[in-house]
Amino acid sequence: MANPNFNVCHKLELLKEEGRSGEPKRQEGEEEVLSYEFQEMLESLPKERGWRTRYLYLFQGFWCQSKEIQAILSFQKHFKSLQNDVVLATIPKSGTTWLKALTYTVLNRDRFDPVSSTTDHPLLTSNPHDLVPFFEYKLYANGDVPDLSGLASPRTFATHVPFGSLKDSIEEPGVKVVYLCRNPFDTFISSWHYINNIKSEAVSPVSLEEGFDLYCRGVIGFGPFWEHMLGYWKESLRTPEKVLFLRYEDLKQDMESNLKKLASFLGVPFTEEEEQKGVVHSISDLCSFENLKKLEVNKSSKSIKNFENRHLFRKGEVSDWINYLSPPQAERLSALMDDKLGGSGLTFRYN
Q1: Catalytic residue among 160, 228, 281, 311
Q2: Which helix H or strand E contains 27, and what residues bound it?
Q3: Is 47 left (phi over 0), alpha (psi -120 to 50) or beta?
Q4: Between β-strands 25-26 and 55-59, what pairing exists: parallel, antiparallel or unpaired?
Q5: In angstroms, rounded to a whole number, what is the distance separating the alpha carbons of residues 164 and 147?
């Protein structure tokens, strides 16, 4: 599968039109000017204090930024799935970068041998987000419509969009979805650190207390988190041949077993010869948090918008939340999870 070269062929007319009364408005903390029509639509949506930008908007039942709404509208209108497409889905800060690295390496191991490719493997010089592009942050960002005709099969993409807003775009038989889920305690702490590191200077920092309250009310990018997780969880139970549900904590505990599960789901299981050669172990090492974090491309480059890659790699630990949340906060989140996830069969490990 060739490294992607995404050429933009045109933009959504909605996002290109000029305002009907004066100049289009600019959202504080956003890079692009919004059209009058789009701004008018935004103003009709419920909104809350944003984390990285001034506001989050309740769009199609989940919270997101104005620029994400632009991209999602373009994606939903223009993306055409193909048989054998692979879509990696996560809620932010749940191991997205890790999942991209693992999936790319598994699918491309015939071209780039993880055992012998010590200097020429793409992961050594490219961030995983450059190898597996986001629908909403790369391909359809700013309302762009990319030309995907040159991509080799299986085309591999990523998204944070909840399943309810993704499903109509991936109805083609044979499309595979891999969802990686992380316990909500660590997801919150990781999100809080990351967003405060990359937020616009026009937006004040989010305190731990304020962020935690927003999180528990569901007001976080692509949240509520419980609805995001349950959407993919229920679909994985209904159509296990289409949606694979993985847990971050399980990967940390037993990477090789989960790599085998991932490869089998994607239709490229490891052969006995590969296992004897150490391919599974080599992929685990190549894609490990420790290895990715030390690479120069992940220290200095930028792969998602203008955010430095170094902010993608903080600790990658399980149970770091213990160092931040007070007992009352932990009790509140535990009770919330019991209420929202109870009876679903979706459970987590925290240490």
Answers
A1: 160
A2: none
A3: beta
A4: unpaired
A5: 25
55, β-bridge pairs = 49
Residue type, 274: E
DSSP character for 136?
I
Instruction: Name the 3-class secondary structure at 277.
Output: helix
Residues of the chain where predicted confidence (pLDDT) is lower than 70: 1-33, 117-119, 198-200, 297-299, 301-317, 319, 351
pLDDT given for residue 204 in this prediction? 81
Is residue 243 classed as helix, strand or coil in its secondary structure?
strand
Residue with tokens 């220290």: 299
pTM as predicted: 0.86
- Can you tell me the distance from the alpha carbon of 310 to that of 307, in angstroms, rounded to the nearest whole number? 9
Flag whether 245 is in a domain. yes
160 is catalytic: yes
CATH assignment at residue 162: 3.40.50.300
- Total structural domains within the chain: 1
Report d(CA 341, CA 322) in Å as an integer: 21
